[in-house]
Amino acid sequence: MEVQVAPLWPWNNFFPRHDSFTQLDLRDMPKWSHHVVNNPLYYQTNHVVLAASIVSVMGFLHPLNMLLGSAVVVFRKDNLPWVIFTTCMLHNICEAWGSSSMRPG
């Protein structure tokens, strides 16, 4: 299966002028949900380029904050399974022994 990358659309097409915006009718749910699902798919390459640009500029302006933020994200991601496992173990021990003084949460 070959993955196809969406094309990079021109800025005027990706971010139209104010007069191009229309208010969607929330009572017409099929049309609204179609728009919400297809718009990010249609412009996914533009969204990735825009996000990468913002992260790059912020990394250039505040390199220490970006490094600290990245370290926190990596630390949280790596330790989340351990925290969940430990909390479940403590909960099971408290349930088995009937202790309400050690009950987490």
UniProtKB/TrEMBL annotation:
Any single GO CC term annotated in Swiss-Prot or TrEMBL for this entry: endoplasmic reticulum membrane
Annotated InterPro entries: Prenylated_rab_accept_PRA1 (IPR004895)
Membrane topology note: Multi-pass membrane protein
GO biological process: negative regulation of transport
Main location class: membrane
Record's subcellular location: Cell membrane; Cytoplasm, Cytoskeleton; Endoplasmic reticulum membrane; Membrane
Membrane among keywords: yes
Keywords of this entry: Acetylation, Cell membrane, Cytoplasm, Cytoskeleton, Endoplasmic reticulum, Membrane, Transmembrane, Transmembrane helix
TM segment ranges: 48-75
Annotated family: Belongs to the PRA1 family.
The name this protein goes by in its record: PRA1 family protein
Native source organism of the sequence: Crocodylus porosus
